[in-house]
Amino acid sequence: MSTDAVPVFKLYGETRHWPTPDLLHWESIPERSQLHDWKIHPHRHTDLLHLLHLSAGRVNLELEGSQRSHEAPLIIVVPAMSIHGFHFTPDTQGHIITLASPLADRLEERLGAQAGAMSLATAYPLNAARPARRIATLVDQLGEEYRHPAPGRECILEAFTEALFIEISRLAVRQTNASSAKAPRPQGRGLAHLQSYQALIEKQFRQQPSIEKFAEQLGMTSAHLNLLCRRLANRSALQLLHERLLLEAKRQLTYTNMTVGQVADSLGFSEPAYFTRFFKRLTGLAPRDFRRRQPDA
Asked: Which of 102, 126, 159, 272 has its Cα between 20 and 30 A from that of 108?
């Protein structure tokens, strides 16, 4: 199967497919997989990082073109754009933690070289008791905080995730292929350009530069940038920018007391009415209606 033929699943900014205004999603593996007869067909995401922790069962893992069977306990790292598929046995227990790229990028920048393992698609058997216990505890703590929101939720979720990154980096060092785990896998020029564009979006989305301005910073034409985005992400360059704006809008409406006008201003909209039209077009709800539907944190 060619890379272009592999489906690209929806991005975190899409209301119907990313179930939370958080930058992190936590769920049990059986919860989703048993709906699909325990099989998830090969696919990829442009801007999501998966961490799967299996505490029981077995998985036939397809990762970047290779297939291998693994028994629990283990943890699987699936970086953005990595082709991956899973066939779990029905007795599988465990959880999947999905990070949107803004959070993954922030943690990787903070941890530096120690986060190198996050860019390598691989599975780490948890053979030693101590690392297995520590990772299982962190995954459980993440789930407890995720399911029961409380003040400081975002900070503590990020702290637990950072600790999980560090534990995985220690596993990578222990592997015989530690040298390859410290460096990102080779990537094509097109993917590198897409990742550079996503990094620019993260830095500048509040100013809402034109696509022409983004393309100029990347040293290409806007037509070329759009072509790359559509080929690799199934989205236009403008849609990727709008998805990041939408995510931030939902986060601010959910977790702050800012007025709709203040949210609009913070995200670079010239008028609240323009922001309201933008938000309703992408979600089907006006910002105030979206806010009323959110549970109290």
From this structure: 126
Q: What are phi and psi of 191, to 5 degrees?
A: -65, -40
Could you please state the CATH topology (level 3) that the domain comprising 189-293 is classified under.
Arc Repressor Mutant, subunit A (1.10.10)
Separation between Cα atoms, residue 273 and residue 268, nearest integer Å? 13
Q: Is 104 helix (H, G, I), strand (E, B) or coil?
A: helix
**DSSP string for residues in 139-202:** HHHHHHHHHS--TTHHHHHHHHHHHHHHHHHHHHHHSTTHHHHTSPPP--HHHHHHHHHHHHHH
Tell me which CATH code domain 3-181 carries. Answer: 2.60.120.280
Length of the chain, in residues:
297
In this prediction, residue 202 carries a pLDDT of 86
Closest of 126, 131, 129, 136 to residue 73, by C-alpha: 126
Domain ranges for the chain, please list them: 3-181, 189-293
Q: pLDDT for 74-111, tens place per residue?
A: 999 998 878 889 999 999 999 999 998 888 888 888 88
| Inter-residue contact 229 to 242 (CB < 8 Å) | no
Strand 84-88: give its sheet, edge to edge.
39-43, 84-88, 58-63, 66-71
- For tokens 């980096």, the residue is 169
Distance between CA atoms of residues 144 and 161, nearest Å: 13
Question: From CA 184, how far away is CA 249, in angstroms rounded?
Answer: 32
Q: What is the pTM of this model?
A: 0.66
Which phi and psi angles does 218 have, rounded to 5°? -90, -5
